[in-house]
Amino acid sequence: MPGTYGGMPSTTPTSSAPSTPANIFQFRAGLGVEHDSNVFRQPAAQSDTIGSLSVGFKADRRIGLQRFRGDIEATAYKFRNFSTLDYNTLNYNVAWDWSFTPALHGVISADRRQYRETYFDTTTVPGFTTNRVGRRTERTELAEGVYELGAAWRLLAGVAHTSSKSSEPGSWDASPSVNSAHVGAGYEFASGRSITARLRRGDGEYSEGFAGAGGDFRETEADVLVKWPLTGKTAVEGRLGRLERTHSGAPQRDFDGFVGNASLSWDITGKTRLQAGLARNLNATGQATGGYVQSTQVWIGPRWTPTALTAVNLRYERTARDWRDVTAGSIDAGRHEIGQAVMAGFEYTPRSSLAFGASLRNERLKSNLINSGYRATIFGVTAKAYF
User: Strand (E) positions, the chain?
Assistant: First the structure.
């Protein structure tokens, strides 16, 4: 089951394609069971056992200059005691990496991610606040083209649609949806390092909070992307930008600031790999009185493969959210919360068509709002078959 203290989607999509693949057509099916010590994510914990069933399909095929790839998975989660929490997810990532000539190419893609999330609801019932557990759906549809000017310079342009929506009312970010267009230029060094500058303009609306009451907005974002291999075993990628969102007729809801992310990948040895990253995002509060939410996440995750059949994963995540420029007297004024998760996992693959796994996850949320903090421990086992 995905983590319950979910992050936010990137405000600017990217279209980098993976390396050239072999032809892949693969079906998979999975079973899982886990015990969750605090399924409602409340200060007073209630536990339950959850079963999951998943089916998926992965394909990756190159035909001439064209490449078609996709990964789709549907999963059903069933709770033993609290059936009202049952939910389904459908996640996919499909893309056409098109190419008219070696110099003119691009991507048309669609991505959807669904996961269980927890947020502190302050809006559903006046005077009553509590943690709510729901399902968040994040989507990105992108069409982008790149033209190579010689061996190093690149020009790019594209359009995109992004959205983030919760299944529960009172979404903490007002569930925004944005249609945007972007242009950019980049330079790629012979070493594989690259720098790209982009400018994006978008028009959006909210489906929660002040939706239907002047909730439309316009945003502008300028950013720089860097891909920088340091050595044959170490690489750094990053994005730094400035986002400005304005609301027609409601300047108290406007906000702006720096956003971005960075990641590090380090192959320490042939069996040990370390990945780490950080991200910063800005979102609306969903309150008519204005303000915004600043979210900062850091994570680190080593992976050790002692044999060809086994792997051990560790991961630590920390997400901090701060409510800024909120009107004094609002319950969100000065609001600050920190979500932390520590995870350990073991994988065993006795053959290419069969894989088993076990995982242990500990979650903790601390907040300066009363009755919003919680702890949870989740232990699970899974089995997957590939056809």
Answer: 24-36, 48-63, 66-79, 87-99, 104-125, 128-149, 153-166, 176-188, 194-206, 217-229, 234-246, 255-267, 272-284, 292-304, 310-324, 336-351, 354-367, 374-386
User: Up-side HSE of residue 214: CA atoms within 13 Å toward CB?
Assistant: 13
Query: How far is it, in rounded angstroms, from Cα 353 to Cα 369?
Result: 48
Instruction: Render pLDDT for 218-263 as a digit per residue (tens, 0 to 9).
Output: 999 999 999 999 998 999 999 999 999 998 878 888 999 999 999 9
DSSP SS3 for 223: strand
Q: Are 222 and 241 in contact (CB under 8 A)?
A: yes
Alpha-carbon Rg for the chain in angstroms: 22
Q: Is 384 exposed, middle or buried (0-12, 13-18, 19+ CB in 10 A)?
A: middle
- Terminus-to-terminus CA distance in the chain, angstroms? 23
Residue 243, burial from CB neighbour count under 10 angstroms (0-12, 13-18, 19+) = buried
Q: What domains, with CATH codes, occur in the chain?
A: 24-386 (2.40.160)
* Distance separating alpha carbons of residues 156 and 199, to the nearest angstrom: 10
Provide the CB-side half-sphere exposure for 125 (13 A, CA).
Answer: 5
Handedness of CA 6, 116, 112, 22 (dihedral sign): positive
Global pTM reads 0.86
- Name residues whose C-beta falls within 8 Å of residue 316's C-beta, 6 or more positions apart in sequence: 299, 300, 301, 340, 341, 342, 343
Longest dimension (CA), the chain: 63
Residues β-bridged to residue 71:
58, 93
Tens digits of per-residue pLDDT, 57-109?
999 999 999 999 999 999 999 999 999 999 999 999 999 999 999 999 999 99
Please tell me the distance from the alpha carbon of residue 329 to that of residue 324, in angstroms, as a whole number: 13
Q: Could you tell me how many residues make up the chain? A: 387
